[in-house]
Amino acid sequence: MTSAVTSGVAALINDRDTTKVLVTTDASGVPHAAVTDFVQCGEDGRILYFEPLESSVANRNLTASIWFDRQVSIALRTPADERFHIGARPLRALVAGPAFQRHYDAFRARFGDLDLATVWVLQPERVDDQDFEQARRRQAEDRPFFQHLDRIARHASP
Amino acid sequence: MGFAQLKDVAPGRREFNETVSGHPDFPQLIALKIDVQRRGVHYTDQALSMVDAEIHQLRSANIFGTRDAVLRPQLPDSLLLRDGTSIVVDPSPLDHDPYFVDLIDGRLFLVDAGEVLEEVDLWHKPRFYDKFTRSGIPMNLVAQARPQRINLFLSSYCHFWAKDDGGCKFCDIVNFGKQQKSIFAGKPNRPRPADIAETVREALRERGRFTTFCITGGSVLKGGELFDVEVSHYIETLQAIGENFSTRKFPSQIVASAFNERQLSRLYEETGLSSYTTDLEVLDERLFQWICPGKAEHVGYKEWRSRLIRAVDIFGRGYVNTGIVGGIELARPHGFRTEAEGLARTLDEAEFLAENGVSTIHTVWVPRPGSTFGDQTAPSLDYYIRLAKGLHALRVKYRLRVDFDDYRRCGNHPDTDLARLL
Ligand code: SF4
Fold it and tell me: Where in the numbering of this chain does the Radical SAM core domain appear (chain B) (predicted)?
């Protein structure tokens, strides 16, 4: 399966200075967002989310997502203020085995004395460029009803 | 046997699909695990061609036996699903309608009636399996592994078996112990503390490999008070393990007899033990007397239950549980006549225990040839889904954790797999 993530977006995910927000939902659909440093894009275009806390809301919600086949989202904001949204689906939860142990060592080498509960393998399904200026222009052109009249009045009130 | 032949008949597949469609709120991966445990597995020759004894964990020394009375140590131990769920499962004879594990494009899949269902991983062998203690014992005969847990079996003999018909009727510990003797010839009857300490030290060298210990064995009735000798065995084992830790307590579980408060306090105070399990096996006094005659005679149902509840004062809420062999309450001829009755009675009693801080966890009953109930059949998949859901709902209602016996620290209880959502 080819990934929806281009190499450019993959590089942004792997840039430590990019802010990443992981959005998940619980079994009843209640959303949860968490800013995280623990997201990485692999060479195969899949996203890895390293969860240090077995008891975190994100870990629970990702479990619900893999069980009930639901999407999660990752929002990115780069230092240059580029913004992206990635819709993905959990494919696999690595909790044991040689691959898990390799990630365990690498994770601890990078982040110090943290545990590693799960490596979530996420399959990206869509990437949306969320450049605000572009979105604003697009709406102004395509959806002319979506504005307040005072903004286009001849004599705008001060 | 070709899959095409199976396709026309596949009642198992029909039951699975009909059952899971009736439980949209229950994870299909856990339903699949239950069903694989109910029916067992058959590894195709192609699947076995990629099993590598250097990498994969083959069937290790164990406490309870096989489903076909033949121990084949060259077969893989068990399986992992893609969500991290363990399926602790034995190979099953073909006439028991097992799931197949087959090799497709270089990867292993569960296959049923020709339908490719889910990719599976084999368990990986821990590094300590290839090492020897200074006394010359292979470490894999001192301790055994699950994907994230170290198991220690203190004995393959249960003193309830000393009397005819004293052992639990679903249990094959003694018969299986004899069978294992020829295969795992160097296995000590009870591992020595020095060998345990050394094996654990070696196991802990492998980073990210283990999260807990489970220590168990048959009941030992001897001592000044009933079970005193068994308690001493656990204490010396836990102390040997504890030599390897910088903390006083470490994640650990014993699955043992029903100890009194003095014995439990000793275990808590003198060792690093952090949780306690003693199995009622069946949550009904009348059936307990029939199915577990040794336990009934020496302790009794009500006293066993009350020892569990008293253990909560020592180990804390969420750190004491009792195991039941799910489905045994329907055993013939004295079990409940309907699944509805069996479920209602079991959940009712589990609720009483939960109110008192004790969790109930279930296994999937595998009628083993070496047990009195060897020729019986386990109940339906629907029954197990309702049982797992019911026990999980009690933990939600009474805010009971079961961290020490969950999907990762054990992996043999469908109901505690659901605790990943707690
Ligand atoms: S107490 Fe019962 S289940 Fe446990 S080992 Fe003895 S006979 Fe088997």
Answer: 146-395
Domain encompassing residue A48 = 7-130
Q: Is B71 in the pocket of ligand 1 (CB under 6 A)?
A: no
- pLDDT tens by residue, B39-89: 999 999 999 999 999 999 998 777 676 777 677 788 999 999 999 999 999
Instruction: Considering only the beta carbons, identify the residue of B27, B121, B408 that sits closest to A67.
Output: B27
Mean pLDDT of A110-124: 97
- CB B57 within 8 Å of CB B124: yes
Task: Answer whether 0.90 is exceeded by the pTM.
Answer: yes
Instruction: Look at strands A19-25 and A72-77 and give their pairing.
Output: antiparallel
For the Cβ of B167 lying below 6 angstroms from any atom of ligand 1, the answer is yes
Q: Is residue A89 less than 8 Å (CB to CB) from chain B?
A: no
Please indicate, yes or no, if residue A56 is contained in any of the structural domains.
Answer: yes
- Per CB-CB distance under 8 Å, the chain B contacts of A63 are 83, 420-421
Calpha distance B187→B180 (Å, rounded): 9
C-alpha B279 to ligand 1 mean position (Å): 9
Which residue in chain B has the smallest CA separation from A101? Answer: B208
Beta carbons of B84 and A95 less than 8 Å apart? yes
**How do beta strands B212-216 and B149-153 pair?**
parallel
Domain with CATH 3.20.20.70 in chain B: 139-421
Residue of B30, B421, B422 for testing the chain A interface, max A β-carbons within 10 Å: B421
Which CATH number fits the domain that encloses residue A35?
A: 2.30.110.10
Instruction: Note the CATH number of domain B139-421.
Output: 3.20.20.70
Contact B208 A94 (CB under 8 A): no
Residues 6+ apart with CB under 8 A from B253: B212, B213, B214, B215, B273, B274, B275, B276, B277, B404, B405, B409, B410
